Amino acid sequence: MRTETEHTIFLKDYTPSPYRIVSVDLDFRITAANTRVVAQLTVEPREGTAPGTPLVLDGDELTLTSIAIDGAPLAVSAYASDADSLTIVEPPLRRFVLETEVFLQPEGNTKLMGLYRSSGTWCTQCEPEGFRRITYYLDRPDNLATFKVRMSAPLDVAPVLLANGNLIDKGDAGDGLHYAVWEDPFPKPAYLFALVAGDLGSISDSFTTASGRKVALAIYCTHGKEEQCLWAMDSLKRSMAWDERRFGREYDLDVFNIVAVSDFNFGAMENKGLNIFNDRLVFAQPDTATDGDYEGIERVIAHEYFHNWTGNRITCRDWFQLCLKEGLTVYRDQEFTSDERSRAVKRISDVVGLRAAQFPEDGGPLAHPARPDQYREINNFYTATVYEKGAEIVRMLATLLGEAGFRKGMDLYFERHDGEATTIEAFLAVFAEANGMDLDQFKTWYLQAGTPRVTVSDSYDAARQTYTLKLDQETLPTPGQPTKEALVLPIKFGLIGPNGSPMAWGGVSGAEVRDEMIVLDKASAEITFTGVPNKPVPSLLRGFSAPVNLTTNLTQDDQLFLARHDSDPFNRWQALQDVGMALAVDAVNGKPWSDAAIKALSDAFGDTLASDTLDDAFKALALSVPAESQIARTVGKDVDPSRIHEVRDRLVKAVFEPLAVPMLRAYLKLASDLPYAPDAASTGRRALRNRLLGLLVASEAAGTASLASQQYAEARNMTDRLAALAASAGAWTSDAPALLADFRSRFGADPLVLDKWLTVTASVPFDGVIERIAAILADPAFPKTNPNRLRSLVGSFAMGNPTQFARADGAGFRFVADFVAEVDKINPQVAARVLTGFRIWPMLESGRREAAKAALTGLQGTSGLSRNTADILTRMLAG
Ligand code: TRP
Ligand code: ZN
Predict the structure, then answer these.
(1) N or C: which end of the chain has fewer CB within 10 A?
(2) Which residues, listed in sequence order, are joined to residue 66 by a DSSP beta bridge?
(3) Which residue has its alpha carbon closest to ligand 1 atom 11?
(4) For the structural domain made of 9-199, what CATH number should be given?
């Protein structure tokens, strides 16, 4: 199968390039018609490079108009270019300067990789392989070079000219043009290059580092949106201070600029000294942004800032090492949020996200290791596994080493690898060295795909006063990995005595047990605790200390006991989830609920709501039953999403309807007249109130449907208004169509708020939704080149509306497949991402499975599919 392997790139084939580019001089002449780029690359042969070794540079959609070495034009026979490369046949075996001139068409660049225009602004996105769309280059992360950039552009349309590093010159360039020169003293890979030219407003501020250096901060945006950037600026300053406090890392340039653009394939990009952001992760004001938006902005601003040390100063040797920077930086941003807000609430939300996005990926046809060893299209590996599982692996390392040991390793990492492009092996080596610890087996976490299943059962021997835990771990095969090894699992735990207090034990044997952590590094273990006076209830995997699926022999009574008494807030939350899950799975399997079981769960929710020790944000998370996608994953095979929807609906009504009175009372009491503030406490209050609203509406208790329309009408911020809209639309109350229409007319002119309407519209779990989405897409005014709009409408349908996407008649599958075929011609990254929604197909019941397969096979027959989409499609069908 030649077509399937011809583009495959393997980690084992990594070799350094025979030449290095050590410095880069770029001259951009930007005009409305096109952009000319003159590049002067200072090239050196690597030691040992044989005479006559060609220099092969990457290039994509470039028009080459001149080429010279050390000022002398090259003869046509001295070089060759094709669709994706430029070869210098026999370069000099000494330092030389290669000069090329190319022309680009940013205006027609709808892939949004390389140099493109977004609402008139010229901007770039180079990670991972976009720089080759700007000039011929060694577009690989292990080539570090210093960059100097001169750019000229029309003064009227582009008064703002930005690039990486420091501004060293600017002035008039004649003919209505002006110019600026930027220099970045830090050697960097090309994927961190950035340039912006446009007519932009800005806000500015400054930050003084711990060592007393003053850094000028600015955020650039569309005119008129400046005030909406203040929260992002506040988040940036807090991020800078936190990285000094927590990791001893200071910022290193004199300026730090952020630019918000409307057309962007991802969330944001950490270009050195010039971060570029999707504007949805910058703009915030109370009447258009939700609490979730505020928190997301804070998190991503922090994430991109933290990349300056984990990603930029220390970068990746090759793209297989992507999680070296992404997993570690996600871990760092999670810690930032935990320190700034509530650690327990952050952990619970992150695990909800991990289970919703990463676990299905790891258990489906697209499963891959956190460090893959092969790829056809690297853009398809910016995944939940690389990011979120990558962060879990770093978190386990921190758990195993302890806070001080982890910090020692991080300090050594920064000290030893600053200025390098390195690997996962080098990362693990510093922790092993700093702590005198063997991490060989731990490394398997990076190499092995799949979510381990951990099974625990316990027994108590009253006569001998011993308590035994039997643990097993197993990872099922994933594509390309038929057999799996045992992983190192840090399992934090505690034993709880009959009175609800922690229980001590005399001795322990059978596995490594440190204070309150079992380290399971074999397929199974039996751990015996001696001197245990009563049968305890075990609290296992506290804080979700390892990313596994845990099954225990705990009864519903045990779980509800944990929900009341566990000192670990994560496990209190988890216990309620487990009880809800068990009931949902029973019902899916046709096993009726006992009244006692329903009442026990309902009472536990009632106690949670009434508690005066739990905070609002925690209560908001705890008052829930597992999402449909979680129930589907737990059921695992022959899934019928409509049945799961029906079961979950029934469960919500059964356990929350009896609580209608206390819930309504609490809902009314939580109303607030205070002006909007995005802090953790106010956010928690709104979260609980809106959760209660959702549950009241869903429980269909008398009079609750009108609560949503009332809250919608009276809302004084977007958090409350959107929650009311979503509650109505999710239950499709009689008011829902009117509220949707009102929202559209009120906010339709603001694209970021329109996105919320698109998502709510696409998430309605009832017939008619496909027709509504199709009508929106068919409107010629709907911008099919904007990733935010497309993802809000069709991405949220494919990922977040299982009953309609996986309709029995296959209409949902066909609709998404047709959409992918169409958008693939405009923006392959967006198309490929939406296509991943099909990953649930192997676990569906046979009728839906066949329908999904037919839609996928039909898509495969489309000619001219991008490598992005073809790669996902092939893996989806093979898995
Ligand atoms: N490195 C970016 C991050 O912080 C990810 C990213 C931004 C990206 N833009 C991209 C990845 C475009 C692929 C393509 O996570
Ligand atoms: Zn990142």
Answers:
(1) N
(2) 101
(3) 127
(4) 2.60.40.1730
For residue 642, what pLDDT is reported?
Answer: 98
Q: Which residue has the tokens 């853009």?
A: 379
pLDDT tens for 606-640 read: 999 999 999 999 999 999 999 999 999 999 999 99
Name the class of domain 315-447.
mainly alpha
pLDDT at 390: 99
Which residue reads 């390389």 in tokens? 114
What is the Cα–Cα distance from 405 to 154, expressed in whole angstroms? 54
**Tens-place pLDDT, residues 662-671:** 999 999 999 9
Strand duo 374-375 + 9-10: pairing: antiparallel
Tell me the pLDDT tens digit for each residue of 490-540. Answer: 999 999 999 999 999 999 999 889 889 999 999 999 999 999 999 999 999
Cα–Cα distance for residue pair 680/233, rounded to 1 Å: 18
In angstroms, what is the span from residue 840 Cα to ligand 1's centroid? 25
382 lines ligand 1 (CB under 6 A): yes
In this structure, the chain runs to a length of 879
For 478-634, where are the E strands, in sequence order?
Answer: 489-496, 507-509, 512-514, 517-520, 524-530, 537-540, 549-552
User: For position 137, what pLDDT does the model report?
Assistant: 99
Q: Are strands 79-82 and 315-316 parallel, antiparallel or unpaired?
A: unpaired
Q: How far is the CA of 269 from the centre of ligand 1 (A)?
A: 5
Mutation pick for ligand 1 pocket among 109, 118, 125, 263 (CB with most ligand atoms within 8 Å):
125
CB-ligand 1 contact for 304 (6 Å cutoff): yes
Same fold, 315-447 and 453-546: no
Residue ranges of domains in the chain: 9-199, 315-447, 453-546, 548-702
Residue 211 CA to ligand 1 center (angstroms) comes to 31
304 is known as an active-site residue: yes
- Predicted TM-score (pTM) of this structure: 0.98
What pLDDT, on a 0 to 100 scale, did the predictor assign at position 410?
Answer: 99
